[in-house]
Amino acid sequence: GDSVTQMEGPVTLSEEAFLTINCTYTATGYPSLFWYVQYPGEGLQLLLKATKADDKGSNKGFEATYRKETTSFHLEKGSVQVSDSAVYFCALSSNTGGFKTIFGAGTRLFVKA
Amino acid sequence: EAGVAQSPRYKIIEKRQSVAFWCNPISGHATLYWYQQILGQGPKLLIQFQNNGVVDDSQLPKDRFSAERLKGVDSTLKIQPAKLEDSAVYLCASSLGGRGTNEKLFFGSGTQLSVL
User: Fold this and answer.
1) Residue B50 to chain A, least CA–CA distance (Å)
2) A53 CB within 8 Å of a chain B CB
């Protein structure tokens, strides 16, 4: 079945460091890919998405490119801030089984001042 | 625009007791989801409704969990009887329900359940 695998955390970085959180997926059909973020004390919210191969999703300085050849959707940010500290979830939605959205296990990011 | 509303925010029960959670999705959203998020794990889909019909409940433990969506709007998720391993955050989400793969999900704040 469809699945999402993302790098284990926690990831601890200093402010202004470069961030990469790896995400790979397994899916039949042509899924859309997402990154959701959960800030401390808040609910999950969509960060960015890409709906087809080679699409790049971007928001708030974060980027991720849909790579069909490597079945990956890695999240990157050039310069993290303390306010980026959160849990990041990679997710996919495929057109099999009723368009359900499947999430990875999440990666916790700590950014130190 | 009002978000997805869930209640209660927290619930503590003893094993073998029953519990119910309530969700009010964003107005006009046809699709409603219940996810279970165990500490340290990603959300796991329990059940997905399209209006008041069930689209997917393949991971719902039907011997103890039940869910309904009255008139295609509000939804309740019930656990009876609860087990220790049911301790988790129960998330409700909704989406427009356009039957595509690029649907954005809107999440509520969740109900944190502790089973003692």
Assistant:
1) 9
2) no
- Per residue in B6-57, pLDDT (tens digit) is 999 999 999 999 999 999 999 999 999 999 999 989 999 999 999 889 988 9
Which tokens in the block code for residue B56?
């997917």
CB contact under 8 Å between A98 and B50, yes or no, is: yes
The distance of Cα A94 from the centroid of its chain, to the nearest Å, equals 16
Number of Cβ atoms within 10 Å of the Cβ of A93: 24
Q: Which residues contact B73 (CB under 8 A, 6 or more apart)?
A: B24, B25
Residues 57-86 of chain B whose Cβ lies under 8 A from any Cβ of chain A: 58
A57 at B interface, C-beta within 8 A: no
CB B31 within 8 A of CB B99: no
Q: With 80 as the cut, is the pLDDT of residue A98 above it? A: no
